[in-house]
Write a structure and sequence with these properties.
With about 190 residues, the protein is of the alpha/beta class. The chain is built from eight helices and five strands. Bound molecules: adenosine-5'-diphosphate.
Length: about 190
Amino acid sequence: MKIILFGPPGAGKGTQAKKIETKYNIPQLSTGEMFRAAIRNQSPLGVKVKTILDQGRLVPDETVVDLVAEALDRPEYSEGYILDGFPRTVPQAEAFDSLLEKKGASLDAFLMLKVSEAELVNRILSRGEGRSDDNPEKVKIRLDVYNKETAPVLAYYDKKGLVSYIDGFGTIDEIFSRIEKALGKS
Ligand code: ADP
C-alpha cells in the first residue's frame, strides 16, 4: 500500500505514520526526518539544508525529489510506503506522479489530517522535541509556507478524487482509528 500522509506542520503526521507503520507493516519515509538526520551527520546534504530548516523554509524541489526518488528505489520500499512531509509543493506532486507512472505504480490513499491553526501552534510549541524550528517565529513562517505552497497539493489530489479527510483532533488512538477506517475503504 502506498500512502501519503498530509497536513499542516504539527498535525501529527509523524506520530500517525509510526502507528500505520507498525499496524500495517509499511515503512514510513519522512523527508523532514531525513533532512534532520543529514544535518546531525553533517553530510553534504545536511550542510546544504541546515539554514533552510532553521528558517522554516522549504528545501528546493529538485533536492527533495532526487532524495525521495533515490530512497524509494531501495528494496525496503518495494511493497509500499507511507510518505510523511512529501510532496509539499505542486511541482513535487507532479514529479512524484511521473515517478509512480514510470514504475507502473499508483497511490492507494491520500490522508489529510485536519487540525485548526490554534491547535497546531499549541502542539508544536508544547512538544519539546528541541527542534530549532519549533519556536513561535519559525512556526508562523512554517504555517505561512504551508498555506501558500503546500495547501495547493491538497487541491491537486482532490481533483483526482484521492483524498480522505481525517479529523486530527482527539487522542492519538482516536485519530488512528479514523485512519484505519479510511484505509479500510480505500
Ligand atoms: P513539520 O511538518 O512539523 O513542519 P517536517 O519534519 O515535515 O516538519 O519538515 C521539517 C522541515 O524540513 C520543513 O520545514 C522543510 O524545511 C524541510 N522539508 C521537509 N520535507 C520537505 C519537502 N517535501 N520539501 C521541502 N522541504 C521539506
